[in-house]
Amino acid sequence: MPCRPPASAPAPAPAPAGTVTVGHDELLAAATTALTDRGVPAGRARTAADALCYGDLAGLGSHGTFNLARLYLPLLASGRADPAAEPRTVTDLGACVLLDSRRALGLWAAAEAMDLAAERARRHGVGLVSVRNATHFGCAGYHAARAARQGMIGVLAGNCGGQRIARPPRGLLAMLGTNPLSVAAPALDDRPFVLDMSTTVVPTGRIRTAARAGESVPAGWLEDAHGAPVTDPAAFDRGEAYLRWLGGDAETGAFKGYGLGLAVEVLAALLPGAQVGPAREALDGDGRPHGRDDGVGFLALAVAPGALRGAEDFREDARALFTTLTRCPSSDGGTMVRYPGWWEAERAHARRRDGIPLPAHLYDELAGLGLLPVRDGAQSRSRTRGGER
């Protein structure tokens, strides 16, 4: 049974209209410079930049360099994130560790937490690192996949601190954030299984990238105070719309998305003692989305299958499982059946080779910060307004 994905070297696809193609190394260097210039140590700045650029590589632009000037630089400038923070160990039981992140930049702090979980899993079979006082960590899948690349199963779950943007089904007040969850594991060569999801229908970044592009969003992503669909993404930041849970309406499964969001809140925030969305102050105010994603909590978990059974047996079984999925016939006769993480890996391989198509406005924003060359005939502007998850 062949277990390696078919080799191919397609011709580079033309850049989409309204984009500017940037080499991955150039974009990575630009993001690293932006962070080191603001006091983040060089090695950690490189890790943070790699986590940020992963979003652009994998086609998850809402969590890529779109967030550099919108979110991370304002976090550092305002002191909500400390560029020189050194996480402190609160409790260390060997297989389990509790860390106080001390407002470290989440892009690198979550990566280091997952690496620590993997290191403990090598010794104990499982490694659990629970973190409080953290900040926005970008794509959860980037961090979970660090364990998968070491032959392990990785789980990363995070809450949104004190940010409240989604209401319980049939509830009147916003209580929870998007509460992302990622599970990663070895699959086919160079294409790990990486589930990376918000427990709401979409993360807020998808809403904001649509608003920035002047596009509508599908009915079902947002709702107004009465539960009616909202398709204007700008309504979200005006406080006129709420994100909906996975499952849609209460009658069609919203309690499942809501329950997953609460499970993440328990594992990621209640466990380490981080800020939680459903705090007493959530009952105050007019019920519209409110709060900031400060005091984030997250859980990094790594499981070493080789500690429980033969590592190569697990690897072969994983190959067989995911190969079987890719051989499932297509229902429409054309679209290939794949698993979460496959297409992201495909895009990343192609974009490392051909370059990353950035929206022109984002390129100009980065050029306005002095991070990329100014395009001929373009007026670059730096946008440094704040934003949340």
What does the secondary structure layout of this molecule look like, with pairings?
Elements: E1 19-22, H1 24-36, H2 42-58, H3 66-78, E2 88-92, E3 96-100, H4 106-124, E4 126-134, H5 140-148, E5 153-158, E6 181-188, E7 191-197, H6 204-213, E8 222-223, E9 229-230, H7 234-237, E10 242-243, H8 254-270, E11 296-303, H9 311-326, H10 342-354, E12 356-359, H11 360-368
CATH superfamily of the largest domain: Malate/L-lactate/L-sulpholactate dehydrogenase, NADPH binding domain
Overall spatial form: globular
Name the average pLDDT.
Answer: 92
Low-confidence stretches: 1-11, 380-388
Task: Classify the fold: give the CATH topology of the largest domain.
Answer: Ribosomal Protein S8, Chain: A, domain 1
Count of helices? 11
Query: In the residues, how many domains can be counted?
Result: 3
CATH architecture verdict of the largest domain: 2-Layer Sandwich
Radius of gyration: 21 Å
Query: Under the CATH scheme, which class of the largest domain?
Result: Alpha Beta
Oligomer: single chain
Describe the sheet with the most strands: 7 strands, mixed
Q: What is the distance, rounded to the nearest whole angstrom, between the alpha carbons of the first and last residues?
A: 43 Å
User: Which strand order spans the largest sheet, edge to edge or round the barrel?
Assistant: 2-3-4-11-5-6-7
Structural class: alpha+beta
> What is the tally of beta strands?
12
Order of SSEs: EHHHEEHEHEEEHEEHEHEHHEH
Give helix % range. Answer: 25-40%
Relative strand content: 15-25%
